[in-house]
């Protein structure tokens, strides 16, 4: 799965879980400030992303995540490792 | 300035001093309270003490004319395992609610754990801190299931006077994820009393009359009957709860809006 595909899947997850318009889900979009995803939502999001990449995600992998682009990079890194 | 208002400024200062002394009492009592064996018993004892203290404080404020108060359907708060949500116009709201509610648990600003007076009572009572997003949601649900009456202000902080209600999602997350019934409580003050951004000594022109109105429970599916993911459910719950509070306040207290 390349980064473009990852973005599309994240857009889909955010639309299903939180009804966020996919057009707003760009790599530069900040999860908290722009998309209104708080720390409680982030727990749900990690569960969904785990299903997406078929791996367990450690909370640490997402500590530094601020933007959608950060999420894509973290997932991409995980799938390569 | 009228004599009555001058009196209220003096009486308000006196009440604050008494409240501080109460806190000081807890400061001295704090170490003793920690000796009570068993977390549950320690919390229950502290909460009982706090409730009686707040009850006495409400009587004091009414007695010396700082506020007047009417309470409707207080019997609805006399159960176990309730999730109580109230709007938050004044610093006194939590005092009124704790005085009216047995077995009260609260989600409290983390800053109170750094307050030299209030840190003791909030710690000994085992209240929940608001600074641990997902953790506090789980802890809140557990508290209600264990039979506590959990009090939360969905606004997260006191209302901005003159602006409409603005609920945050924390309360909605607790209600949706715990599938909890909610007991809504409307608190209305005829005059802004200890609202945000106003020093205590600027007391209102007339004596504020507080009305506390406990509404019928909202069943877990009353506001969001549709089956949807929890994150989305919490968003809709929050919107609809805010709408419901806004309507109910306008319906019951038309004069104040």
UniProtKB/TrEMBL annotation, chain A:
Gene Ontology terms for molecular function: acyl carrier activity
Pfam families cross-referenced by the UniProt entry: PP-binding (PF00550)
Record keywords, A-Z: Cytoplasm, Fatty acid biosynthesis, Fatty acid metabolism, Lipid biosynthesis, Lipid metabolism, Phosphopantetheine, Phosphoprotein
Pathway(s) where this gene product acts: Lipid metabolism; fatty acid biosynthesis
InterPro entries cross-referenced by the UniProt entry: ACP, ACP-like_sf, PP-bd_ACP
Domain Carrier: 4-79
GO cellular component, one term: cytoplasm
Subcellular location: Cytoplasm
SUPFAM superfamilies registered for this protein in UniProt: ACP-like (SSF47336)
Modification O-(pantetheine 4'-phosphoryl)serine occurs at: 39
Post-translational modifications: 4'-phosphopantetheine is transferred from CoA to a specific serine of apo-ACP by AcpS. This modification is essential for activity because fatty acids are bound in thioester linkage to the sulfhydryl of the prosthetic group.
KW Cytoplasm (keyword) present: yes
Purpose of the protein: Carrier of the growing fatty acid chain in fatty acid biosynthesis.
HAMAP family according to UniProt: Acyl_carrier
Family label: Belongs to the acyl carrier protein (ACP) family.
NCBIfam families xref list: PRK05350.1
Official protein name in the record: Acyl carrier protein
Organism from which the protein derives: Chitiniphilus eburneus
Lineage: Bacteria, Pseudomonadati, Pseudomonadota, Betaproteobacteria, Neisseriales
Automatic annotation (TrEMBL), chain B:
Ranges that cross the membrane: 12-33
Keywords: Acyltransferase, Membrane, Transferase, Transmembrane, Transmembrane helix
Superkingdom of the source species: Bacteria
Molecular-function annotations in GO: 1-acylglycerol-3-phosphate O-acyltransferase activity
Residue ranges of every copy of the Phospholipid/glycerol acyltransferase domain listed in the record: 82-190
Protein's GO biological process: phosphatidic acid biosynthetic process
Pathway(s) it belongs to: Lipid metabolism
Protein name per UniProt: 1-acyl-sn-glycerol-3-phosphate acyltransferase
Species name: Chitiniphilus eburneus
């Amino acid at each position: 799965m390349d980064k473009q595909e990852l973005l599309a899947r994240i857009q889909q997850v955010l639309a299903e879980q939180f009804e966020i318009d996919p057009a707003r889900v760009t790599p530069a979009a900040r999860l908290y400030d722009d998309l209104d995803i708080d720390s409680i939502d982030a727990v749900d999001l990690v569960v969904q992303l785990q299903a997406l990449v078929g791996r367990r995600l450690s909370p640490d992998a997402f500590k530094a995540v601020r933007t959608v682009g950060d999420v894509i990079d973290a997932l991409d890194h995980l799938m390569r490792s | 300035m009228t004599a009555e208002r001058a009196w209220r400024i003096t009486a308000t200062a006196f009440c604050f001093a008494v409240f501080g002394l109460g806190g000081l009492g807890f400061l001295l009592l704090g170490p003793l309270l920690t000796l009570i064996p068993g977390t549950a018993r320690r919390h229950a004892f502290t909460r009982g003490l706090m409730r009686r203290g707040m009850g006495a404080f409400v009587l004091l404020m009414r007695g010396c004319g700082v506020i007047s108060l009417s309470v409707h359907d207080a019997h609805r708060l006399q159960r176990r395992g309730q999730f109580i949500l109230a709007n938050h116009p004044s610093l006194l709201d939590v005092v009124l609610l704790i005085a009216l509610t047995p077995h009260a648990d609260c989600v409290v600003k983390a800053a109170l754990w750094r307050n030299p007076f209030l840190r003791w009572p909030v710690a000994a009572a085992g209240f929940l801190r608001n600074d641990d997003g997902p953790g506090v949601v789980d802890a809140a649900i557990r508290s209600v299931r264990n039979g506590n009456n959990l009090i939360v202000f969905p606004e997260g902080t006191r209302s901005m006077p003159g602006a409409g209600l603005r609920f945050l999602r924390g309360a909605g997350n607790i209600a949706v994820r715990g599938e909890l019934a909610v007991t809504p409580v409307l608190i209305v003050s005829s005059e802004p009393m200890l609202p945000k951004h106003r020093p205590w000594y600027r007391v209102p022109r007339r004596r504020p009359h507080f009305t506390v109105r406990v509404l019928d429970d909202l069943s877990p599916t009353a506001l969001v009957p549709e089956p949807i993911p929890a994150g989305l459910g919490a968003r809709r719950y929050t919107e609809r709860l805010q709408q419901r509070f806004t309507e109910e306040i306008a319906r019951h207290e038309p004069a104040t809006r």
